[in-house]
Design brief:
- This protein is mainly α.
- It folds into 2 domains: 123 residues, no CATH class; 69 residues, no CATH class.
- The chain has a two-stranded antiparallel sheet with strand order 1-2.
- A hairpin with a 2-residue loop joins β1 and β2.
- α5 packs antiparallel against α6, α6 runs antiparallel to α7 and α7 packs across α8.
- The longest helix has 31 residues.
């Protein structure tokens, strides 16, 4: 029953995401974004507001990238760069779509377990198995990755601290090179033989 309810949530989210691309009125998007903003701000679960800064930066870049260099009626001109009515409309609509998708995804994740969401996605994608897509294997690999990523992070953190304690790494670039030297081999092993690296990390952290 839990998985079934999560399938319904995912289906609603997909319908919501698709519907956003049929709404092109910037005023509707403004109203929806304001409503979503207040839902996130006043939501009782605090972690739903995590990652606010990178999301804001991403939304700002999206807005700026759509605002400038658009044809249409010129509203303002700043340092020789024209801001047009079409540019403002596109910037509002596209930024709002991204924000609403992020807000919807946060509400979905916060109201469901990550494992349940992945299993539900696997169930919804089962029809694609008939055309040769390995849905079951993809679902299992995603679940395994979710379990391993925290352990992978801890493994890198432990190795990083051990190397620093040896006193041979100095300065910002030295620390950066050390971090890269630890991450790249683990990443390559994960790509070339994921089962092996996953098993090693899980067994080593038991």
């Amino acid at each position: 029953m839990d998985v079934y309810s999560e399938e319904i949530k995912i289906s609603i989210y997909i319908l919501f995401a698709v519907s956003l691309y049929f709404i092109n009125d910037p005023f509707i998007h403004i109203y929806l974004s304001i409503a979503a903003f207040f839902v996130l701000i006043f939501h009782p679960v605090k972690r739903i507001r995590s990652g606010a800064l990178p999301i804001f930066i991403f939304l700002f870049v999206t807005f700026a990238g759509n605002l400038f260099f658009q044809n249409g009626k010129i509203l303002y001109s700043v340092a020789g760069i024209d801001i047009t009515e079409k540019g403002v409309s596109m910037a509002i609509v596209r930024t709002s779509r991204v924000f609403l998708l992020i807000a919807g995804a946060k509400l979905l994740i916060i109201s469901s377990s990550s494992e349940g969401v992945i299993k539900a996605m696997g169930n919804l994608m089962k029809p694609f198995a008939k055309i040769g897509i390995p849905v079951e294997k993809l679902t299992e690999l995603t679940l395994l990755s979710m379990k391993v990523l925290p352990k992978l992070k801890e493994t890198i953190k432990t190795l990083y601290k051990e190397k620093l304690s040896e006193g041979e790494v100095r300065g910002f670039f030295g620390r950066t090179n050390l971090l890269v030297s630890l991450i790249v081999p683990l990443f390559l092993q994960t790509v070339t033989s994921p089962e092996k690296i996953f098993k090693e990390i899980i067994d080593g952290n038991k």
